[in-house]
From TrEMBL:
Source lineage: Bacteria, Bacillati, Actinomycetota, Actinomycetes, Kitasatosporales
Protein name: Pectinesterase catalytic domain-containing protein
SMART domains in UniProt: PbH1 (SM00710)
Domain of life assignment: Bacteria
GO MF term list: pectinesterase activity; polygalacturonase activity
A family per Pfam: Glyco_hydro_28
Length: 796
């Protein structure tokens, strides 16, 4: 951080009173002025400057004499009106000097009482393109006036993006940033002003630091010791694609001897990129402990309460509010007229647990050794009719069931070339993990009689209803798991449902039965692979699930489910073979997994009970029907975070999905309910027919339920190689229950869409939905469409 020269306050005297005017700017010449600066020069105090859509490559300075000036983007979308320049502190000036930090600013707004709305202000300086420049501070906005309001703006840069300050450090200088998106890396909010960041999105950019390294710092305040208030970040969201633990919240800047930084971060979502346990750091020999740094009621993986993360009490927090910061000596309260929520909504936080990669249990209660070798996945006739390992495995599971909170393993072990187990339905009890050796395969029985559920339709037949087959593995009780040991080669244990093999005594496979059911308009009675019922803290780890006859994993009820390192490999042509379905579930994470199947890759359901606090991240999907919510949502689905995933419409065998979607929420009046606070961040899809689907009339279902999708955010989305006729869907139920959606930084090569009854905020969105009851408004924000790569499904 380079020191900023201090100088006396400029005069704030107003010129003679006049009737406020609106001056217009358009880069193409279709207005009074072609440049923003020309309009500023012509404006008087109290005027409004309306800036048309376009790019304005210039620096803009508003002097202190232009009190009460308003600068506004004419379209209402900050992304439409971009003021950019690319100076850095070390950029040379004529005569041999350099700009310095303050001189690098793209916009310098010194006038008191200014309002700036729906503009993008960018410092485009690139370190990579200017390796010879060492002082890389590059200010986008220098805000240096009292009673300034910034609303719905994008302020984008890297180091020292936003300077909130006064040339006179003891002067009353208050600034209110509301519904703004601000991006940067090093000290990107800095200065001595009293500044409130309210319902903002702060994008901590990834500069490539490894986990635990340093990407940067959000704040570098240099509040004067005489001032109670410096920076307040409240009800905001910090987003970052950076590795975990690579950002600090702040450090104390001391350009004057009397600076004592003051920053409070409260009621704000903090990502894993923030060093949650110790979020503050020293600067230039000054300890962060000598500053006034505090947090209160923050959430997200980067929020922690530790000795190195000071927290306000509830009583103290009552003194650190937007109103208290901005009131000053005249009772200024710009928040009183601000909207009650950010236009784009707040981002979902997902799983409320602190989830990390699981570990296999070290305590083995019982070991069951393989006696079969099934190189062709088929055993002898007698073994197929009566699977020899059902009783052996179940006795071990029964003997190891836990009554306390401990966890033990029942291990399926290989014996030389014998690596196969053949079994009918099994039950995993409380506190035990079914643990597979790396080379072991647990094969599911082909005999439908082994799965028969009493009082239900015959397993292995078509009927007007389903439910005739028990799952291959049922999990009942807390702290249980199904896990495998992963070898150094990447091999891990697997469960093979053999959905492709002929059902014993039938002329078709399980998958063939599912196809026949579709043609006949009936239900197939096929077994699921794994079902966990009300099993809190269930773990599925480093296990391969192959060729399930029906759904692979259903997590029904329960609080706490982690699926990590799971590889599901079933062809896209296998009907009704969902990957992982949380239903009526709370606190779920599906991470670092590879999912290929013939239906939804993930389907979050809220039928008989609500689902909430769910994270789907760092996963890859192949040939599926997408990452889905629904269709049962009648009990509600909320707080779902879908982040850093890829979706490919073709499976590893070259089969094209029969219903290839990217992300979708689907329901109808037949089984609908409220779906709220769902965030899709940095999603890449390719070769799909429906990049996005938000459909409240799914499959034409009718009834008295009310499907209502609101608070849905798609930020950072790219669709490539879309199939012929590809189209997205944005359809709310009716005018009273519109789809509430933000499309931020969206780029799709298929722009066709169907839309109705939707209230959409948009930024850098090339889909441009329109239709009956559709409104689209602009909102500011930083971020960018992700660059995409689509890895091949790993060899199993």
């Amino acid at each position: 951080m380079a020191a900023i020269p201090l100088f006396a306050d400029a005069s704030t005297a107003s010129p003679a009173a006049h009737a406020p005017r609106t001056l217009t700017v358009a880069a193409d010449g279709g207005a009074q002025y072609r440049t923003v600066q020309a309009a500023v020069d012509a404006a008087a105090a109290g005027d409004t400057i309306s800036i048309a859509k376009g790019g304005y490559h210039e620096t803009v300075t508003v002097p202190a004499s232009k009190t009460g000036l308003t600068l506004v983007g004419a379209t209402g979308r900050a992304a439409d009106v971009v003021i950019s320049y690319g100076n850095a502190s070390g950029t040379p000036e004529p005569g041999g000097s350099t700009h310095g930090t303050l001189g690098s600013a793209t916009a310098t707004f010194a006038a008191p009482g200014m309002t700036v709305k729906n503009l993008t202000i960018v410092n485009s300086f690139s370190r990579a393109a200017n390796p010879g420049i060492k002082n890389t501070q590059a200010v986008a906005l220098a805000a240096e006036g009292d009673r300034q309001v910034y609303e719905g703006d994008r302020i984008l840069g890297h180091q020292d993006t936003l300077l909130a300050w006064s040339p006179n450090p003891t002067a009353q200088t208050r600034q209110y940033f509301r519904d703004d998106d601000i991006s940067g890396d090093v000290d990107f909010l800095f200065g001595n002003a009293t500044a409130v960041f309210d319902h903002d999105t702060l994008d901590a950019r990834d500069d490539g630091a490894a986990a635990g390294g340093v990407n940067g710092v959000l704040t570098a305040a240099n509040t004067e010791a005489s001032k109670k208030y410096g920076f307040l970040i409240t009800d905001s969201t910090v987003v970052s694609s950076a590795k975990a633990g690579t950002y600090w919240l702040g450090r104390p800047w001391h350009p004057t001897a009397t600076a004592v930084a003051q920053v409070v971060v409260r009621n704000t979502v903090l990502p894993a990129a923030v060093k949650g346990a110790a979020p503050w750091t020293d600067m230039s020999g000054f300890s962060w402990r000598s500053a006034r740094f505090d947090s209160y009621a923050n959430t997200g993986p980067g929020a922690a309460v530790t000795a190195d993360s000071p927290q306000l009490t509830a009583g103290q927090a009552a003194q650190y509010t937007t109103g208290a910061y901005l009131a000053g000596t005249d009772g200024w309260n710009p928040a009183a007229t601000a909207p009650s929520t950010a236009p784009a909504g707040t981002l979902a936080t997902g799983d409320a647990r602190q989830v990390s990669e699981p570990r296999v249990p070290t305590t083995v209660c019982a070991t069951v050794t393989a006696t079969l070798a099934m190189p062709n996945r088929v055993a002898s006739g007698s073994a197929e009719a009566t699977p020899p390992d059902t009783g052996r495995i179940q006795r071990a599971l029964d003997s190891c069931a836990q009554t306390g909170s401990g966890t033990v393993a029942v291990k399926l072990a290989a014996a030389s070339s014998r690596t196969a187990f053949l079994s009918g339905p099994l039950t995993v009890h409380r506190g035990e993990v079914l643990l597979l050796d790396p080379t072991v395969t647990l094969f599911g029985s082909r005999n439908p009689a082994n799965y028969q559920v009493s009082g239900k339709p015959a397993c292995g037949t078509l009927a007007s209803s389903s439910g005739g087959c028990a799952p291959l593995v049922t999990v009942a009780g807390a702290n249980a798991g199904i896990e495998a040991v992963r070898a150094a080669s990447g091999t891990q244990g697997r469960i093979d449902g053999r959905g492709d093999e002929t059902i014993l005594g039938k002329g078709t496979s399980w998958w063939g039965l599912a196809t026949a059911a579709q043609k006949a308009g009936e239900n197939q009675n096929n077994p699921r692979l794994i079902q966990a019922n009300n099993s809190d803290n269930f773990t599925l780890y480093d296990v391969d699930l192959v060729d399930s006859p029906n759904f692979h994993v259903v997590y029904n009820g329960g609080d706490g489910f982690t699926a990590w390192g799971v590889r599901i490999k079933t062809p896209a042509t296998a009907r009704n073979t969902d990957g992982i379905d949380p239903a009526g579930a709370t606190n779920v994470t599906v991470a670092d997994s590879w999912i290929m199947d013939g239906d939804d890759g993930v389907a979050i359901k809220g039928g008989s009970a609500a689902s909430r606090n769910i994270t789907i991240e760092n996963d890859h999907f192949y040939g599926t029907h997408g990452i889905s919510i629904g269709s049962e949502t009648n009990s509600g689905v909320s707080n779902v975070l879908v982040r850093d995933n890829t979706v490919t419409g073709t499976d590893a065998y070259g089969n094209v999905s029969g219903s290839s979607s990217g992300i979708r929420i689907k329901s109808s009046p037949a089984n609908g309910g409220k779906v709220s606070d769902v965030s899709y961040l940095d999603t890449c899809v390719t070769a799909v027919r429906a990049p996005m689907v938000f459909d409240t009339h799914y499959s034409g279902g009718s009834g008295s339920f009310v499907p209502w999708f609101t608070g849905i955010t798609v930020e950072g989305f790219r669709a490539t190689a879309s199939t012929s006729g590809a189209k997205s869907t944005f359809v709310g139920l009716d005018a009273s229950h519109p789809l509430g959606l933000a499309l931020l930084d969206v780029a799709s090569d298929a722009t066709a869409n169907t839309a109705a009854y939707a209230a959409i905020t948009a930024r850098d969105d090339n889909l441009e939905p329109s239709g009956t009851g559709v409104t689209v408004t602009g909102v500011s924000g930083s971020g960018s469409v992700p660059s995409c790569s689509f890895p091949a499904f790993p060899a199993l």
